[in-house]
Amino acid sequence: MGYRNPRIHPQKWATGMAHRSRGLPPRAASFLVQKAEQRRALRRWERHLNNTRSHRGRIAVENEVDLHGPPRDFVYINEYKVGAGVQLTPVAVGCECSDCLAEAAGGCCPGASHNKFAYNEAGLVRIRAGLPIYECNSRCRCGSDCPNRVVQKGIRYDLCIFRTGNGRGWGVRTLERIRK
């Protein structure tokens, strides 16, 4: 993220820059004021995103490339959004386990994944790429802390929505190292 002194309010910073920029060429002074306005808009959008999120990971926003503010066509969602032509079939069955990880050897949850528990104790995928993963669901007896409920727990890492420098628009990257 770019440097921003947290003790200076952005509007006061912009006003101060306008006063200090009187010796600057008009285009440079105008750029500094526009940059301050952009940063304020991005901070407002960042606060909005973090106030509407339902996951642990925080969201940062940065644009050190140009003067674009928040994208107008970006919609942040906290739930699945099914595309056109796709129909979801409600889950008909759930597991009877009370502790899915302890009972995994018995065939409770891993039965749908060819008798292999899809996740290890750290929540990392341990089955071969391309095999489907069947997570526990609302019809299961196990609780929300079940180790077979990984994806549905949402984002656990801090993310940054950033403006790309190669002309491709906005991108997303993590602010933390994620184990493979």
From TrEMBL:
SUPFAM superfamilies: SET domain. Residues 93-154 form the Pre-SET domain. Zn(2+) 1 binds at C95, C97, C100, C108. Zn(2+) 2 binds at C95, C109, C136, C140. Keywords: Chromatin regulator, Chromosome, Metal-binding, Methyltransferase, Nucleus, S-adenosyl-L-methionine, Transcription, Transcription regulation, Transferase, Zinc. GO terms for biological process: methylation. The keyword Ribosomal protein does not apply. SMART domains: PreSET. Zn(2+) 3 binds at C100, C136, C142, C146. InterPro entries: H3-K9_MeTrfase_SUV39H1/2-like, H3K9_Histone-Lys_N-MTase, Pre-SET_dom, SET_dom_sf. GO terms for cellular component: chromosome; nucleus. GO terms for molecular function: histone H3K9 methyltransferase activity; zinc ion binding. It is found in: Chromosome; Nucleus. PANTHER family: HISTONE-LYSINE N-METHYLTRANSFERASE SUV39H, HISTONE-LYSINE N-METHYLTRANSFERASE SUV39H1. This is Suppressor of variegation 3-9 homolog 1. It comes from Pavo cristatus.
